[in-house]
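INFO worker-7 received task bundle
INFO bundle size: 2
INFO processing item 0
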Amino acid sequence: MDAFEDHRPAIECVALLPEPVAAALRDWQGPMDVQQLRYVDTDPAIADTALLVEHYGSWLLDLSANCVVVAGKRGDNVTLAGCVVLSTTRVDVNGVVRRELGARKASFAPMDTAIGGSGMEYGGITPIGLPADWPLLVDAAVADTPYVLIGSGARRGKLIVPGKALAALPGARVLEGLGRAAG
């Protein structure tokens, strides 16, 4: 991640982050020092992975991860969950996610639901600071990656986080096959 000229401990940048993310960093109790979670300032116009990779180079694609919000439904009961997969894959919503949530139907949550429930900006949602009652599903490939670049909760800025730190977040479940090959 040395290609980013300005990266610093995310804990020093809480004023730039949405409150749920800032609170999670202030209350950090992960398996490693919070100083290992880094913040890098990026242009919000290139927050989407494809644009970020186009700007910084294709090497970034293999180190990037995405966090998406899904809604699992069983009858009238709806469970929102965060899913973290490498950017080279897609979330297996109708297979792994649906089974893991015990839902009859699962789909990506509507944008208003995702941002309203998370307190984060669409296009920048991160697993750090998601509501404590949401399951957090983390693909095993993410957990095994030394560091991933992921949203900061806002479109401006990204976090550089050890995969093991994401796997150790409250409520996290590491799952094989959560991310499936795109295409």
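INFO item 0 finished
INFO processing item 1
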Amino acid sequence: MCWHLMVRRMRKPKITIVGSINMDLVTITDEVAKQGETVHGEDFRTLFGGKGANQAVAAARLGADVSMIGKVGDDAFGSRMIENFEANGVDTKGVGMEEDTPSGIANIIVSDKDNRIIIVAGANGKVDRTHVEHFSEIIKESDIVLVQFEIPMETLRYTINICKKEDVPVIINPAPVTALEGEYFKAAAYITPNEHERASLFKMREDGLPEYYDKLITTQGAQGASYFKDGREIVMPPKSVDVVDTTGAGDTFNAAFAVGIAEGKDIEDAIAFANTAAGLAVGKIGAQSGMPYRAEIG
């Protein structure tokens, strides 16, 4: 075993998340209202969320040394979200509080074991290049950086450029779907779309393979996740689980995959680890409430 891999396995992997921080406003209902219609819901909950925050908490629970770079608003939600990071062992030096700005929120309707989500960016829209640059040393010291598409794309490009310059592997989780120039996907170590995001973002090459196929880890819901080996797509199914709420399953997968790769696992073992973590996450309501701890996976 090479020396740097031995050192990595002797310590916690250092993962930095650059992304969104939201409060999830979750309504649980048997019936989704049509336009102009009012229906009775079953329950309402206020839960911590945001793709970036979800991935940070999941990675920390799975044993990584995690730093979060992002912003919250100067409201009650913002203070609570910072406290939640600290309670989960996430370093918050890179989390700013934006004045006169609400925190980001996600309005989530859970019905028939699936979800519909509306996002309001709030302070997430103020995560600019200057903020990331101020905490660039955190990025430079990372084993892996994980980004998503819920902050301004200019900031995302700048973050990827820092990673490329400093030779820090970056995982791009292209959600929600937004166009990004190919040079940034080329700079990624891995790209982790779901099936719909992959179809929207990546063209098929002349040989029948999708663009950047060698970097693609595609999440496929109940079917598990896939990767490409020797020009062939291999699907790795998850264990059978009882699904309660799929919110946050993809974020748990991404965090667990990042942890696995940072620990030195190969792609197959990292995907298997991530499938197991995501399977445990769907057993409870809410993005973060169901995210597993390392002891639950082994």
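INFO item 1 finished
INFO post-check item 1: The chain has eleven helices and 13 strands.
INFO post-check item 1: Residues 13-33+41-291 form a domain with the UDP-N-acetylmuramoyl-L-alanine:D-glutamate ligase fold (CATH 3.40.1190.20).
INFO worker-7 idle
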